[in-house]
Prior knowledge:
The protein has 386 residues and is mainly β. Helix content is 5%, strand content 40%. It has helices at residues 39-49, 56-62, and strands spanning 17-22, 33-38, 99-103, 110-114, 121-125, 131-135, 139-145, 151-155, 161-165, 169-175, 181-183, 187-189, 194-195, 200-202, 210-212, 215-217, 221-224, 229-231, 237-238, 244-245, 254-263, 272-278, 286-292, 301-313, 321-330, 342-348, 360-366, 373-383. It is rod-shaped, with a radius of gyration of 39 Å.
Amino acid sequence: MAVIYAYPTVVPELQDLLIGTEMAIQGGEDAPKTRTFTIQSIVDLVDTESRIIPTLQQVTTVGPTATNGITITTNANLAVPIKGIANWEGVGSQNNVAVSGFCTGSGTGVKGEVLAGGIGVRGISLSGVGVSGLSSESYGVYGEGYSAAGVYGTSVYGEGVYGWSASGYGGYFYSDNLEAIYSAGNVYSEGDIKTGTKFIVAGGTPTQALMANGSTRNISIFNNSTAPQNITAATVTYLTGSNISTANIKAGSIVNWNIAVLKTAAGVAPPVFTVRFGTTGTTADATLLTFTGSAQTAVADGGLFSIKCTFKTVGAGTTAVLAGYYTLMHNAQVVGLSVLPVNFSFQTSPGFNSTLTNAVLGITVDSGAAAAWTINQVSVKLENQV
């Protein structure tokens, strides 16, 4: 018989045979016997009897990167936040949370960024909160979407998106191309809402689309003057702080001006207030409504002129119509700014094109010959927009 190394070397296969000894059963009468075993039988024996299942720690110690997707069929308790996972979707069973973030420092509770065509953070809940984020110093929920939604939350009975922060913003939303916040229903916030360059768009009842600090509010925009304005007599003057954008008006939008005036003893001619519309915000803009007050008298006085207008219709060509009224309340009753204790006038504009890009409404005033007026404050509010 040749020595073992004299035999040729080959690659073993599972059906190949090995020579071994079958030991006698302890206490039995059989002596050990020489037997042959297939390599497959030895592999099966080792796999079933001696297999060691590694722990997750042992696996990640060898290498923390996996090219295959991971499916977790039970709840997972994570000691650290999930970060940097693309295309991750959280699904919670009944009474659990799909996406929730909590940060006690200056970080972000929930943050999602997507470059194109996707959703930064998405949460859907039937009776709870779709997306929840809590932060003690920074943003409760932070989402950026460049061509889709930064944060998308849906809930049948609860909040679609809930964000809370002790000293920062409950939610921060920004979009390059669409509205920063879009809701098919009402938008509710117990505190301030911060957005980027785009406005909030919400459905629901138009006069209750945005609610802040627990109270119902219209979606409104404002402007006002910050310094007194001395009006040159017998000169048409565009009032600083009276202009307001009409970019989001609709039929039923309301604009209201309040103009506080002090008059010296000079000047007796009737004052003229004009509502103007155009793209320059100057006296060059078109006249829509003209309100002429009663004659003044040579007595010093102070009063409040109010002009309130409603867009009856809006549109291109000559579709738009603005109607409004003018009132004056003043201290001197039948002298000074007017020989009447109260002035009232109602006017309706001719048809005009309200769809001009970058157009504004504003007020001009002609205080009358020899009049010396100081306008201490101008404020304007436009309510009930699209």
